[in-house]
Write a structure and sequence with these properties.
Strand content: under 5%
Low-confidence stretches: none
Radius of gyration: 20 Å
Largest sheet: 2 strands, antiparallel
Distance between the termini: 10 Å
Strand order of the largest sheet: 1-4
Length: about 325
């Protein structure tokens, strides 16, 4: 029965996030869980780092940081899950808690904003895409803006939806909370900059490990979803060929699958921190991505969400049989 309540809670979380997302009225009054996670990471970084640390000590302290926060997330998640499931309609309360750690609606809204911006002019599209990518956007033209948004959609479909869902299915609220802590730490300190090259190494590697299977599962779901347009075979071919080309060991898989599914060409040269990066191209189609192509990508991502939701409903049925 406990397992059935857990799966019902996960299904509820998917629906709540899809409908409500992150309501601004609520999070203006209360700190979002990810904001609290970010504050904890920042606090520990300032406590653990010293001005003249050696690289070895920075790596140790970075490992201490991510270990403490991950263990704390597992413990807090276990306690909160036990409390919520003991309440009447506990699965619904659990779903509400989990929904704050999913990002499907937020992702769709941000990518749709890029499409709307591009329909107005390049400047509006550039402004919208700057909110969801880490690269320099000042020199991006319309097609490059579209590519950046599509790549962000593919990567965050894994990081923001399928990966947290996967860890929720494996460990419940402790799993999704611990995953979100690691993923947030990677985004804050997992960069190869002078400041975080050594201190953030443990967070970056743990994030890679936690995303290894979910990224490939996301690519598989994209391939299945592409069957609706008759491009599942192409999505599979491009994912196998180009999935390893990305600088990340994981992000390239959903990105390549989406490129093959939509007959697009993604990635390619771009600028990070003022420095050009000669990234390889992914896919064989057109690199000219505009509002129409962005909405096709959003439609594909929606089919992936539906497949995941049906799978969770199936697990609910089996657990309550």
């Amino acid at each position: 029965m406990w397992t059935g309540s857990l799966f019902l809670g996960i299904a509820a979380a998917l629906l709540i996030d899809r409908i409500a997302g992150d309501p601004e009225a609520l999070w203006r009054r209360l700190p979002h869980p990810v904001v609290l996670i970010g504050r904890a990471i920042d606090l520990l970084e300032h406590r653990l780092r010293r001005a003249r640390d050696t690289p070895a000590r920075e790596r140790r302290m970075g490992t201490v940081l991510i270990s403490l926060l991950t263990l704390a997330g597992l413990a807090c998640g276990w306690f909160l899950q036990a409390v919520l499931l003991a309440l009447p309609l506990g699965w619904l309360w659990l779903g509400l808690a989990m929904s704050t750690l999913l990002a499907q609606k937020s992702l769709v809204d941000h990518v749709e904003a890029v499409a709307v911006g591009l329909e107005r002019n390049v400047e509006a599209g550039r402004f919208a895409v700057a909110r969801i990518v880490g690269r320099d956007t000042a020199a991006l033209d319309g097609p490059a803006i579209g590519r950046a948004a599509t790549e962000s959609l593919a990567e965050n479909l894994s990081d923001g939806v399928i990966a947290p869902l996967f860890w929720a299915l494996v460990l419940g609220l402790p799993g999704i909370l611990a995953y979100k802590i690691v993923n947030t730490a990677d985004s804050m300190i997992g960069h190869r900059t002078r400041r975080h090259l050594h201190f953030g190494r443990a967070a970056a590697r743990l994030d890679d490990a936690l995303n290894w299977l979910p990224a490939r599962l996301t690519a598989a779901l994209v391939i299945v979803a592409a069957a609706c347009s008759g491009r599942a075979r192409e999505a599979w071919r491009v994912a196998r060929r180009d999935g390893r080309l990305h600088r990340s060991p994981n992000a390239g898989w959903p990105e390549a699958a989406m490129a093959g599914a939509l007959d697009l060409r993604l990635s390619g040269p771009r600028i990070y921190g003022g420095r050009p990066a000669d990234e390889p191209w992914v896919g064989d189609g057109s690199p000219a991505i505009g509002p129409k192509e962005l909405r096709l990508a959003l439609r594909l991502a929606d089919r992936v969400w539906r497949l995941a939701f049906v799978a969770v409903l199936g697990l609910c049925g089996l657990s309550l049989w």
